[in-house]
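One such shown below:

_____
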Amino acid sequence: MSDPTRNAPDFRQQRASGMAAIAVAGLFALGLWLAVDRLMPSMPGMDSLAARMLLTLKCYCVAVLFCLVTGVEAVAHERLTSPAFDPLARFETRRLRVNQRYLQNTVEQIIVFGVALFGLAAYCADGLAMRAVVATTVVWIAARIAFWLGYHRSAALRGLGAPGMALSMIVLLYVASRFGGEIAGTTGAVAPVAAFLAIEGVLFWGTRPQKADD
């Protein structure tokens, strides 16, 4: 049998372009997160957990509006004005396919982002620390928009949105580490991070391209 990657001769070139997009977007995301976190004033009235959770809910609502709802609207508008009005007709433009994939990807990621955001807020002690919640929201929204616009240009440029998912994972690791530390000290703080990295290693190894026997 032949190498399964032969049907996609530009795979390595696209991957290289995608990695470059991820690197550039990562630097921009880091700068944006630090700018929001450092430059915005301290959030007032954040002494109680209820106030911090309410602010986090508001941030999450903004993310849903500008990332998820806009995706729903993009698909709905195209169906309304084309033969795709009947989903069973199987009429699809490239734009519609990209919008559908963006929508599905956003549905998946917004769950992870929401859990991470509320977990982060739980460990923010005051209005100064809550700037991290706002910064995380701003970067995640920007990353989703970059993913969407980039995907319409090429598959590789959807890598511009990678920092959004990376940020959600980093926040979740932070929350898991803090929680583990509360339970079992230093060992408990390190264990969830080490376990997750081990799983990631297994996934990278297990999903690497396989060369079939000729």
User: Anything to note?
Assistant: Residues 18-163 form a domain with the Four Helix Bundle (Hemerythrin (Met), subunit A) fold (CATH 1.20.120). Residues 162-206 form the longest helix (45 residues). The CA atoms of residues 53 and 121 lie 7 Å apart.
